[in-house]
Amino acid sequence: MSKTSSSSHLQPIIGSMLDATAPSPVGGLVAAQLLDKHYGLVGELSELTGERDENFRLKVRVGSELVLKVFGLSQPRGEAELLAAVLEHLSLHAPDLPVPRLIRSRDGLDTLRFVDSKGHERYAVLYSFLPGKQLIDTCRSETQYRQCGALLARTAIGLGNFVHPAMYRPVIWDLRNLAWLRPLIQQLDALPFEDFICAFIDEFAHSVSARLDRAPRQFVHNDFNARNLIVDAHDETRVTGVIDFGDAVHTARVADVAVGVIGQLSAPENAEVAFRAFVEAYQELSPLDTEELLLLPWLVAGRIVQNVTVTSWYRSRHPDEQHFTAFGPDFFAWRIEFAKHLCTLARSSG
Questions:
Q1: Beta-carbon neighbour count of residue 81 at 10 Å?
Q2: Does residue 179 lie within any of the structural domains?
Q3: Alpha-helical regions (H) of 122-193
Q4: I want to staple 304 with a disulfide (CB 3.0 to 4.6 A). Which of 22, 74, 112, 339 is the partner?
Q5: Which domain covers residue 173, as residue numbers?
Q6: What is the rounded distance in angstroms from the CA atom of residue 271 to the CA atom of residue 83?
Q7: pLDDT-based confidence at 184, cuts 50/70/90?
């Protein structure tokens, strides 16, 4: 694929999504003022990382912590309302699911609107903080793989009848939009593993995209990675929660499973075991059909290609941002080799 190939028809869509990554912080002082004024909350405030937004962890008292998510300058109101609606839906329809719980303002609002120091209209949502440690910081095991697979299935079941206008918005992380990576590649001076990535995108467009469009669809989490999964701080074999519905979208159900597989890949020697155990546990609660299973290796490889391309773009545009600091060529090298292996398997399976 040539870097000079035309993608002008995609530029407005890609531009609108990626503009949302531009730094536009309101800062901790403003966050504290919002919490005090609109929620009557005061406490110890610390900042968490975020791809497109600011996230503030508030410790009100021992054992009681909350997160204030302030949406980025270019993120529309619908995204804030979508998050609030998702959390409310799960609290009603899947109350046993270990996800954050929505906190309304003193005026009963689930989405807070405010004007920042530059006069821009901004939005924020407050929800409970899930204690524990991130999966990425733990010693991985087959017990974890299976618990995570089951948790993703439970999450998908809980979201199965969710409906909201914003769930159809374009998302760069939606595997159905893999071809949208081309404009990003054109903007990069250098992309690790570029030859494989460009060839993969072309093959995916030719052999996989139409099949994926026919796969069963629903609203899904779409970001079931190792930083969004929480385990017990004292027992790493216990997966205790899932966070971050910021990339949740209506897409192919099996794409959500592929994203979940990626979250289990921590070392080349356990990659196939992690893949198998995660998918087996998912299917015990929510079986995939034969065509979805045939698509799965393509989609796991596609998510690896997405991760390399999009994180490379972010790192080149925002070198001082910390959210993707750890995800450079060394992190992705063996994952690209695994993607090549999956492509070989997928071609032989039809």
A1: 17
A2: yes
A3: 142-158, 181-187
A4: 339
A5: 11-17+134-349
A6: 32
A7: confident
Q: Which residue do the tokens 């975020």 mark?
A: 50
Q: Per-residue pLDDT averaged across 50-68, rounded? A: 87
pTM of the predicted model as reported, rounded to 2 decimal places: 0.92
Pair (87, 167) in one structural domain: no
Instruction: Give Cα 71 distance to the centre of its chain.
Output: 15
Kindly state whether residues 203 and 85 are assigned to the same domain. no
Enter the tokens of residue 116: 């920042």
Q: Which residue has the tokens 């609030």?
A: 84
Segment 84-137, tens digit of pLDDT: 999 999 999 999 999 999 999 999 999 999 999 999 999 999 999 999 999 999
| 176 & 257 share domain | yes
CA distance 166 to 177: 17
Task: Give me the number of domains the chain comprises.
Answer: 2
- Tell me: do 104 and 74 sit in the same domain: yes
Helix pair 194-207, 329-349: axis angle to 10 deg: 30
Say if strands 235-242 and 54-61 run parallel, antiparallel, or are unpaired: unpaired
Q: What is the mean pLDDT of residues 158-166?
A: 97
User: What does the buried/exposed string (b/e) look like for 48-74 if buried means 16 or more CB atoms within 10 Å of the residue's CB?
Assistant: eebbbbbbbebeeeeeebbbbbbbbbb
Q: How confident is the model at residue 7 (pLDDT cuts 50, 70, 90)?
A: very low
The two three-digit tokens of residue 188, written as one number: 């990069």
**Torsion-angle region of 114 (φ positive above 0: left; ψ -120 to 50: alpha; else: beta):** beta
User: Is pLDDT at 300 greater than 80 in this prediction?
Assistant: yes
Same domain assignment for residues 56 and 84: yes
Kindly report the length of the chain.
Answer: 350
Structure tokens at 124: 């924020």
Whether residue 297 sits in one domain with residue 208: yes
